[in-house]
Write the structure tokens for this entry.
Amino acid sequence: MHAKTTEFDPELQELALFAKLLSHPARIAIIKLLAAQKTCISGDIANELPLSRATVCQHLQELKNAGLIKGEISGLNVNYCLNVEKWRTVKAQFEGLFSLTIHDISCNC
Amino acid sequence: MHAKTTEFDPELQELALFAKLLSHPARIAIIKLLAAQKTCISGDIANELPLSRATVCQHLQELKNAGLIKGEISGLNVNYCLNVEKWRTVKAQFEGLFSLTIHDISCNC
DNA sequence: TTTGTATGTCGTAAACATACGAATTATAGC
DNA sequence: GCTATAATTCGTATGTTTACGACATACAAA
């Protein structure tokens, strides 16, 4: 994050961070897989995506650091799942933005 | 956009691009200002944000290139406004994501 | 036509994101 | 203990974003 972004309203900063999480198709794909419980296992997730294991792992860590997913070691595998609590928070933030009342009557563009 | 992102489902790519638009607090702030019609004029928008005019202009162009806002010259000023049509499209895409049914019962994390 | 004001573009520096091979860690099973 | 396997971290190359001063453009009004 650039230094300047900290000068914005904290709510705006948080929403921008959530948006950044969703700003790569791999991360959206991961969230969708986990929501559908098609697979939990790191390797299986990597196999579903057109990226190397290393890159997928990087995206997984990004989602994990943000608290949006949780990971749990199970033998040789690692199971990931959505943090439903956090997902609800993200959803609520976006819904706040999208429920803005739009006053576009006086606009001539 | 990296070459690899084109290998994902086009719907996912589009949503990721919309998310990228919202991934900077300045751009969210601009959208909120325009939605509230607090101001339309480029210079006034710049004055509301803790960034230089040049940088704000860059963010405005980014939103404009994506079709999310429209700009119209009016004498010395430029009036911007939200493209309500496009905003509805963005909203619908996100709502699609957030209306995912979550199957987290079998997950132990 | 000159001057001032509002915008936008250019060039560029610094920070950040994406991607992956190679090395590392950690567990399972022999 | 060894070996195989799964996952992650490291190092690094490449591309993108953010930020802004300086310059360019375009209109208005003196």
Summary: The mean pLDDT of chain A is 93.
